[in-house]
C-alpha cells in the first residue's frame, strides 16, 4: 500500500514489483501525478497489464477493502526490524510519500499493527521508496516459499 505517491517513476517501479511478485498494489490519493504520465509508464515497462492495482480516495477507504488484514507501516523511526515479522499472505505493507514518509496520524492509526524499519548505516536518511518496498515484499514472499513463482524448468521471459 502506497500512501500519496508523488514520484511517477517510483510508482511505475512499484507497478513492476507488483507484477513480478503477484502482490496487489494499493495507491492512496492524492496522487502526485496522472496515471497516464510517461515517466510512470516507462518505469513500469510493459508490466502495467500484469499488475493488480487499485486506487483509493483515502487511507480509511483502502483499509475498508481489507478489513481483516494486519497493517505494517514502514518508517525509519520503526523499532521492529522487517525481518522479525512472520508475515501472512493478507498483510498490508504500508509505505508513505517519498519526501516525508508516513505522517504521525497514519502511524498512530488504530489499524497499524506495528512500525517496521529496514536497517541502514547511521546518518543515512532513507532508502528509495521502491527499493524499500522491494526488500519488504521479497521477505514476505520468501517466508511463503515464493508461492506461485515460475517453475525452474520454464524459460524466463527475459534473459
Characterise this structure.
Helix content is 28%, strand content 17%. By secondary structure, the protein is an alpha/beta fold. The two termini are 30 Å apart. A four-stranded parallel sheet has the order 5-7-4-6, with helices on one face. Strands 1-2-3 form a three-stranded parallel sheet. Strand 2, helix 2 and strand 3 (52-56) form a beta-alpha-beta unit. It has five helices and seven strands; from the N terminus they run βαβαβαβββαβα.
Number of helices: 5
Rg to the nearest angstrom?
15 Å
Query: Mean pLDDT, nearest integer?
Result: 89
Query: What structural class results from the helix and strand content?
Result: alpha/beta
- How do the strands line up in the largest sheet? 5-7-4-6
Q: How much of the sequence is in beta strands? A: 15-25%
The sequence of SSEs as H and E is: EHEHEHEEEHEH
List keywords for this structure.
about 160 residues, alpha/beta, about 15% strand, disordered C terminus
Summarize the structure.
The protein is of the alpha/beta class and 159 residues long. It contains 5 helices and 7 strands; from the N terminus they run βαβαβαβββαβα.
